Amino acid sequence: MKVRLFSLVSAVGLLILGAVPASASSQGHPYLALGDSVAFGTSEIKNPAVLPASAFSGYPDVVARALNVEVVNPSCPGEATGGFIDPTGLDNVCRFYKTHFPLHVSYSGETQLQFAVNFLKANPRTRLVTIDLDANDLFRESTGPGPDVWPPSTCFVPAPASSAGLGLYFSTCAVQNLETIFGALRGTGYKGLIVALTYYSLDYSDPVGTAGTKFLLNAAMITAAAPFGVKIASGFDAFAAATAAFGGHTCAAGLLVIEKTTPLVCGIHPSDLGHQILGKTIVDAIAATCPAADPIGCLNRNQAS
């Protein structure tokens, strides 16, 4: 079981892709998209060293088009919850990526949380904040113990990493980090919608990997979101439904970027179809927040309340 769990860890954790352009204006009614490389966007080529930033797009672009808002996307490939909060916090490869490749927006002297807080204070008409985060925690914490929250606390994973240790980390440390993030966002005075997107399983026919995604990554996010009025958009359920006709195989359903066709091998990041589904899941979650069930009307209602 441990080997299969760590196989999931290795696959989910390497959340590294390119960026979408930093062209969105902060004027009007912006939408702030936070997170790791799932929010960052996907390219079939996947090499940010040879591609322009405009080659990458993801579910935030789908959401922005559906809601007629301008997306500002500071998400960073390899971002973990600790590094999101503090420049010395737990990180996968975000700090490396920021040094070598362009992000959607430039904030080299700030963490993603600092950027988000400053942005919300400067843009009180922001309509929406979305976030996906904590998969890179799984990758890093599977390799051994280390400080997991900022400021450092007694929250450590036992060494060597184990299923029990990872469970302890996500039920305590990851929740603490995510609560710090949501508390800081709300602390700016922002009262509009925050929608957290849960992760999908790479293969729903694998009960161990699927359980790890649901009960480690997503459970931490759902627990942390509740006290801050953060809505949940279940990417997990959306991909499960889309794979039902394919025996639960996310790759065969066309939801992940194909890396090899014979035999069929996929990476860990969403394909264009996958991003369309994730974006629709967020839009549907927004529509469910008010009686009218109209996403734009519900967005406006939440922003005004």
How would you describe this protein?
The protein has 305 residues and is of the alpha/beta class. It is built from twelve helices and seven strands. It has helices at residues 2-13, 37-40, 59-67, 81-85, 94-100, 112-122, 135-141, 163-187, 207-225, 235-243, 272-287, 295-304; strands spanning 30-35, 70-72, 128-132, 193-197, 231-233, 256-260, 265-270. Strands 2-1-3-4-5 form a five-stranded parallel beta sheet, sandwiched between helices. Strand 6 (256-260) and strand 7 (265-270) form a beta hairpin. The chain is globular, with a radius of gyration of 18 Å. It starts with a helix and ends with a helix.
Q: What order do the SSEs take from the amino end to the carboxyl end, as H and E?
A: HEHHEHHHEHHEHEHEEHH
Q: Label the overall shape.
A: globular
The order of strands across the largest sheet is 2-1-3-4-5
Give the CATH level 1 class.
Alpha Beta
Structure annotation, total helices? 12
Rounded to an integer in angstroms, the radius of gyration calculated over CA atoms is 18 Å
User: In the CATH scheme, what's the topology name?
Assistant: Rossmann fold
Q: Give the proportion of residues in helices.
A: 40-55%
In short:
This protein has 305 residues and is α/β, with parallel strands linked by helices. The protein has a single domain, classed as 3-Layer(aba) Sandwich (Rossmann fold), CATH 3.40.50. It has twelve helices and seven strands.
